[in-house]
Specification:
The protein is mainly beta. 10% of the residues lie in helices and 69% in strands. The protein has one domain (2-182): Porin, CATH 2.40.160.20. The chain has helices at residues 2-16, 38-41; strands at residues 21-35, 45-56, 61-73, 81-102, 107-127, 133-150, 154-163, 166-175, 177-182. Strands 1-2-3-4-5-6-7-8 form an 8-stranded antiparallel beta barrel. A hairpin with a 5-residue loop joins β5 and β6.
Length: 183
């Protein structure tokens, strides 16, 4: 209910030039698709996370801090070994609101975003025969870009991320929950 009221207030205040701002927490989840060389070693995985966001009608973008966990299951190395990759990331970024698309029931906005992220990568190799586990840990900076659609309370985005030598696409669904709203 609060979300619907906030959305109506945004439309109302934008049309009258008034200021409205808010902080949001936004849980998200999606598919992670490895591309390039990494796709030879890993299959499609998933990611889950949460954003902390700030929006203000005086600026045309949303400022976000994002925390995510991503998992890519490995393809079998051979008969006795398999691998996987876990990525824990923290990022800072901006989502820019582009062209509005109107329908009878909703106002859709197209969005484009960029982010810079710090990643903690855990590579695991497991032996099915002996039960041995070998883990390799890496820390890397990366960046990403995204495009998508939003009705402000929900986003559907296609993201491209690159971390040193690896890159992947992700398709994410996000639900934006207001924490604080001022007008």
């Amino acid at each position: 209910m609060k979300s619907k009221i906030f959305f109506l207030l945004i439309i109302n205040f934008i049309s009258f030039g008034q200021k409205i701002e808010g902080f949001f927490i936004s849980p998200n989840f999606g598919l992670r698709l490895p591309i390039g060389n990494i796709s030879n070693a890993y299959s499609t995985g998933f990611n889950i996370g949460a954003n902390i966001e700030y929006a203000n009608t005086n600026i045309p973008f949303l400022i976000k801090s994002e925390f995510k966990y991503g998992f890519l299951p490995g393809k079998d190395l051979n008969f006795n070994f398999h691998s996987n990759q876990s990525i824990y990331s923290a990022s800072l970024g901006l989502n820019y609101f582009l062209l509005p698309i109107f329908s009878n029931d909703f106002l859709f906005l197209t969005i484009a975003g960029i982010n810079v992220n710090y990643n903690y990568i855990e590579l695991g190799i497991y032996s099915t025969e002996s039960g041995m586990t070998k883990k390799q840990l890496e820390r890397e900076f990366g960046f990403g870009a995204s495009v998508g659609m939003t009705i402000f309370l929900m986003d559907l985005t296609l993201n491209y991320n690159i971390i040193k030598r690896d890159s992947y696409f992700s398709i994410d669904y996000l639900i934006r929950l207001p924490i604080y709203i001022a007008y």
